[in-house]
Specification:
It contains 16 helices and 15 strands. The chain is an alpha/beta fold and 379 residues long. It has 2 domains: 248 residues, Rossmann fold, CATH 3.40.50.10540; 80 residues, formyl-coa transferase, domain 3 (2-Layer Sandwich), CATH 3.30.1540.10. It has a 6-stranded parallel sheet, with helices on both faces. Strands 9-10-11 form a 3-stranded antiparallel sheet, with helices on one face. Strands 3-4 form a two-stranded antiparallel sheet. Strand 12 and strand 13 form a beta hairpin. Helix 1 crosses helix 7. The longest helix is centred in the middle third of the chain and has 24 residues. The protein starts with 9 loop residues before the first strand and ends with a helix. The mean pLDDT is 95.
Length: 379
């Protein structure tokens, strides 16, 4: 794309691991010049956060997926000369992101008040684990811990089983996306007023907002959400909502009338249940569906269900998904030119004026762009 919407904006990213860097990634995808401020020795701690021991050069594959298309400026914030150089960068930047614990940036002399004296137009965006106040403010802001402490793990899995966490770092990615929303809103406000802003979000608040539907129900009746004991899909939804095994795979059933389902799959045992019983008797209903769907393959059930205009889909693994035409037409894959052979990752999901956004630029090595950044913005 010739002219991305954030082209010309300079973003300084004082972040590590996932949440802050994921916000920087999206801003870079949209055209901003994102400069990671990293320690001279080691850089972002996320460089060593490896999954299945996959590496590109001397950093983990995970680091590369979330830090592509950025620059790296090496600086020791405890060194006076390096700190002065960083302050000169701040004076020329538009956005500053960090996800350190409360008090860390203040110790480094880069708290909001100090930065605003250097650059009153700065959009200062920060992510914390639990906010700046309260007894949890210094606890580690780690994804699994947040899923556990917010009750999210009790929404997944069957009711008689232990709580189940999401299979992805949901709070890190979600919080990074919400920080970008705040940054873009502040940039629009700055365009109107000329003033910078402090944007704050915590992993805790982000994950509570994620559960607004469940929590609103709890606030109203003070009752814990009850997971189905059989094929739980959503604690607030009635049968048949959930994933079911078939003779050769799995099928997902979304919201649908229980009598329409009975007719579509020719299951007489479901006809005795009224619409009002779809929630109160959902475990019994689901147990009947479980036995019935095991008798035929997935393709058969999908034809019956979709012919009746009922919401159902096959459950794919990734191999099935990437070989399907519905996936291929999206062109979601892009090659990153990192390491000896490069690697494939997903592209930015946003399209602008019907154009997809691709970038083959790999994540930087620690300090790779220090001299170029100095030449462009400091010297």
């Amino acid at each position: 794309m010739n002219q991305l919407p954030l082209k010309g904006l300079i973003v300084l990213e004082f972040s590590q691991y996932l949440s802050g860097p994921s916000a920087g990634l999206r801003l870079a995808d949209l055209g901003a010049r994102v400069i990671k401020i990293e320690r001279p020795n080691g850089g972002d701690a996320g460089r060593k956060l490896s999954i299945k021991n996959l590496w590109v050069d001397d950093s983990s594959l995970l680091f590369h997926t979330i830090n592509r298309n950025k620059e790296s400026f090496s600086a020791n914030l405890k060194d006076r000369e390096d700190l002065e150089a960083v302050k000169k960068l701040i004076a020329k930047a538009d956005v500053m992101i960090h996800n350190f614990r409360p008090g860390v940036m203040q110790k480094n002399g880069l708290d909001f008040e100090t930065v605003m004296q250097l650059n009153p137009r700065m959009i200062y965006a920060e992510i914390s684990g639990y906010g700046k106040e309260g007894p949890w403010k210094l606890k580690p802001g780690q994804d699994l811990l947040l899923q556990s402490i917010t009750g999210l793990a009790y929404t997944t899995g069957n009711g008689q089983n232990a709580p189940v966490p999401f299979g992805v770092a949901i709070v890190d990615i979600l919080c990074g996306a919400q920080l970008v929303q705040g940054i873009l809103g502040a940039l629009i406000r700055r365009q109107k007023t000329g003033k910078g802003a402090l944007i704050e979000i915590s992993l805790l608040e982000s994950l509570l907002d994620f559960q607004f539907e469940l929590l609103t129900t709890y606030y109203a009746n003070r009752r814990q959400p009850e997971r189905s004991n059989v094929n739980n899909g959503h604690p607030l939804l009635s049968a048949p909502y959930g994933i079911y095994e078939t003779a050769d795979g799995y099928v997902a059933l979304a919201m649908m009338d229980i009598h329409a389902l009975a007719k579509a799959i020719d299951c007489k045992a479901l006809e005795k249940f009224s619409k009002d019983q779809a929630f109160s008797e959902r475990d019994e209903i689901k147990t009947i569906i479980v036995s019935h769907l095991l008798t035929m393959p997935t393709a058969y059930w999908l034809k019956q269900l979709q012919t009746a205009a009922l919401w159902a889909m096959e459950v794919f693994d990734w191999e099935k998904m990437i070989n399907h035409d519905a996936y291929k037409c999206l062109q979601m894959e892009q090659k990153i030119n990192g390491g000896d052979t490069g690697f494939i990752t997903t592209r930015c999901p946003i399209r602008i004026n019907n154009q997809r956004i691709f970038s083959s630029r790999p994540a930087p090595k620690v300090g790779e762009h220090t001299e170029q950044v100095r030449a462009d913005l400091i010297n």
